[in-house]
Amino acid sequence: MDALLHQVFAGLASGGIYASLALALVMIHNATNHINFAQGEMAMFSTYIAWSLINIGVPYWAAFVATIVISFFAAAAIERILIRPVEKAPVLTVVSVFIGLLLILNSVAGWIYTYTIKSFTSPFPSEPPFGNKFVSSHELGAIAIALFVLVAMYLFFRVTPLGLAMRAAAENPASSRLVGIRVGWMLALGWGFAGAIGAIAGMMIAPLVYLDPNMMAGIMLYAFAGALLGGIDNPWGAVIGGFLMGVLENVVGALIGTELKLTVALVLIIIVLLLRPNGLWGHKVVSRV
Amino acid sequence: MNTTNKSQLLIALAAIAVALVLPFVVPDYRIFQLTMVLIYSIALLGLNILTGYNGQISLGHGAFYAIGAYTAAIMMDKANAPYWSTLPVAGVICLVVGFLFGLPALRLSGHHLALATLALAVALPQLLKYKHLEHWTGGVQGINLLKPDAPFGLKLSQDQWLYLFTLAVVVLMFVLARNLIRSRVGRALVAIRDHPVAAEAMGVNNAMYKSLTFGVSALYTGVAGALSAIAVQFVAPDSFPLTISFFFLVGIVVGGVASIWGPIFGGFFIQFAPNMADYLSKDLTGAVYGVFLLLFAYVMPTGVVGFLRKLASKSA
Which of A39, A152, A195, B306 is the most exposed place for a label (fewest CB within 10 A)? Predict the structure, then answer.
């Protein structure tokens, strides 16, 4: 029972990270119908920026905030410069751009920082909190930060005028433009947020999986699976899906061994696609002929 | 036979003639590289049938390449099967796996399909390392193979023979693909890509065609994988990283989407692009592929073949 509880907490910690990344995916998907395949590599690069900052002596939380700000602007710039020209292009072109971006980020990170695995500091104490034996401080901290991000995003979209404008731009670009919302900039803003959320997720997962240019492949697979499970057009669904994936990954990993963790995600993706292609809480896509 | 067909045939024959002479004038390591170009072009042709003609995007064809390679390796290592007999088996296994994977995947389109196939490519290396399959796959160590000798006492080096053997397979596979694309099946594929609803209304069984296309595409890539195992003489889970699937995508975009000739250019590109990176740094290989992918996506979405066609139509 103790072991199971421990797995569940560890699962919630990584689940929070998958949930954040899944939310970042959904934000971009809802605004443009694109799945950002480079999301993971963007997060990985952000984490390296944080690592560099910490390495030259910047205190952790200052580096944390600086990385989020840098990632926000970098991601918005990527949208403006790379994605905007292909906004209306065929799917293959858009996917090509994402994959090109992914390859470049991955390989430039390897070039600058080498492929040697680096350890990444956690801002949380190494002793478990309150002397419990189920959950480490970092896991609890990661869950807290993930929840904080999710609530902050929820409030931003619910109560601020800018959030409302962004939702409007995603829902109905043409009408939004008519009422004076600058739809293009809203998309860039959405990318900025996705980049910032990715940076937080990267900095939270790096102490667990260590830092290397390929660290995100597996993590993104879980985030994708989580988003698909919950419904890729439903932010709430994606978040719940992300948490579910984290718990599932750890519990199944404990039961059948960790070597097949990724295969579990693959099987889950296929099952979801077979039984509920729109996910548990997704909207059915209806097209008019 | 009309004039375009005639000129196409002439170009094809000339290309084959050049390809036949090459192994006798270049050194052995170049022959090996050219063999890899041919192998890649088969894999790319498979992906092009799926993505170019049928409009289904796969980011996971590296997985079928790996399945083909492992089929060949296991057959040769465990059953002492002759190398040539592994190709049809690898093809059929990939056809079945591809068809089965295509069944759930065909409910998806565009980005979602790319995602599902990506998951396959991410998960496969882990599956190959799985300890209960180790008896067959050799685990992390992989499987070492021997290069086949030329048969009938022909005075050819191993590299020359393998090159010629691969060339024969390439010609066969390309002719089959060309005929498939030009038949009513091929027209159905293009119709599904361009307007699925209209295709359905004309009586095309979309679901069946899409799954079958996935299978045929996987068959091509599986045969290429089997050939690669024979040529490289080694398979291991880490020989098939996720990037292979991405490089295949780069290959068809650079060569020319929805074209029979595109995969040849794509094959050359995949094989020799890393050389360009070597001028800067080996670590930048991925970036070179990425930059070319972006460049072609923005500037030349029809690839090398599209560019050549444009040149030809201007000069005509």
Answer: A152
B104/A270 CB distance under 8 A: yes
Any A CB within 8 A of B249 CB: yes
Question: Which tokens sit at B226?
Answer: 């089997």
| CB neighbour burial string for B186-221, b if at least 16 within 10 angstroms, e if fewer | bebbbbbbeebeebeeeebeeeebbbbbbbbbbbbb
CATH of domain A2-275: 1.10.3470
- pLDDT bin (cut points 50, 70, 90) of residue A102 is very high
The answer to whether the CB atoms of B291 and A225 lie below 8 A apart is no
Contacts of B226 (CB under 8 A, 6+ apart): B68, B69, B71, B72, B86, B87, B89, B90, B91
Q: Which residues contact A36 (CB under 8 A, 6 or more apart)?
A: A24, A25, A28, A29, A42, A98, A194
Q: Is the ipTM of this complex over 0.90?
A: no
Look at A91 and B57 and tell me if their CB atoms are within 8 Å.
yes
Q: What is the pLDDT of residues B292-312, one digit of tens each?
A: 888 888 888 777 888 888 888
Name residues whose C-beta falls within 8 Å of residue B11's C-beta, 6 or more positions apart in sequence.
Answer: none
Using alpha carbons, list the distances in angstroms from residue A181 to A85, A176, A189, B74: 20, 5, 12, 61
* Gap between the Cα atoms of A44 and A200, Å rounded: 10
Beta carbons of B119 and A224 less than 8 Å apart = yes
Amino acid at A8: V
Half-sphere exposure of residue A199: CA atoms within 13 angstroms, side-chain side: 24
Closest of B162, B154, B153, B139 to residue B35, by C-alpha: B162
> A211 - beta bridge partners?
A118
Total beta-carbon pairs less than 8 A apart between chain A and chain B: 144
B22 touches chain A (CB under 8 A): no
Give which of A239, A234, A208 is closest to A20, Cα–Cα: A239
- Tell whether B123 is within 8 A of chain A (Cβ): yes
Q: Which structure tokens are listed for A187?
A: 């998309």
CB B54 within 8 A of CB B61: no
Contact list, B197 vs chain A (CB under 8 Å): 289
With beta carbons less than 8 A apart as the criterion, state whether B294 and A82 touch.
yes
List C-alpha distances in Å: B60 to A166, B51, B64, B122, B242.
34, 12, 8, 8, 8
Distance from CA of A280 to the nearest CA of B (A): 16
> What does the alpha-carbon distance between residue A231 and residue B183 come to, in Å, rounded to a whole number?
39
| Residue B277 CB contacts under 8 Å (≥ 6 apart), including other chains | B284, B285, B287, B288
Residue range A247-267, pLDDT digits in tens = 888 888 777 776 777 788 888
How far A29 CA sits from the closest chain B CA (Å)? 10
Say which DSSP state A89 is in. S
Cβ of A93 and B301 within 8 Å? yes
